[in-house]
From TrEMBL:
<feature type="compositionally biased region" description="Basic and acidic residues">
    <location>
        <begin position="33"/>
        <end position="46"/>
    </location>
</feature>
<comment type="similarity">
    <text>Belongs to the PDCD5 family.</text>
</comment>
<dbReference type="GO" id="GO:0005829">
    <property type="term" value="C:cytosol"/>
</dbReference>
<dbReference type="Pfam" id="PF01984">
    <property type="entry name" value="dsDNA_bind"/>
</dbReference>
<dbReference type="InterPro" id="IPR002836">
    <property type="entry name" value="PDCD5-like"/>
</dbReference>
<feature type="region of interest" description="Disordered">
    <location>
        <begin position="1"/>
        <end position="46"/>
    </location>
</feature>
<dbReference type="InterPro" id="IPR036883">
    <property type="entry name" value="PDCD5-like_sf"/>
</dbReference>
<dbReference type="GO" id="GO:0003677">
    <property type="term" value="F:DNA binding"/>
</dbReference>
<dbReference type="GO" id="GO:0005634">
    <property type="term" value="C:nucleus"/>
</dbReference>
<protein>
    <submittedName>
        <fullName>Programmed cell death 5-a variant</fullName>
    </submittedName>
</protein>
Length: 77
């Protein structure tokens, strides 16, 4: 599973938990959903551009570096 997909799943789950606790209202949830969709679309376009620009070796290095950064920032939170 790609990192943007994982982040979208995390955000949806957080919204579900907030809604269960009565912390979110429907209008806010709709706005957040629209923002998440826009963010996801932008990330998808970005990934498509990078796949066209970068060589396969460069994509692998970028992916590996991003995974290391993601793990270290997750551990630090």
């Amino acid at each position: 599973m790609a990192d943007p997909e994982l982040e979208a799943i995390r955000q949806r789950r957080m919204q579900e938990l907030m809604a269960q606790r009565g912390m979110g209202n429907p209008q806010n949830s709709e706005q957040q959903k629209a923002q998440e969709d826009a963010k996801s679309d932008a990330e998808e376009r970005r990934q498509m551009m990078l796949s066209q620009i970068l060589s396969s070796e460069a994509r692998e290095r970028r992916k590996f570096t991003f995974e290391i950064i993601s793990r270290s920032s997750f551990i630090g939170s």
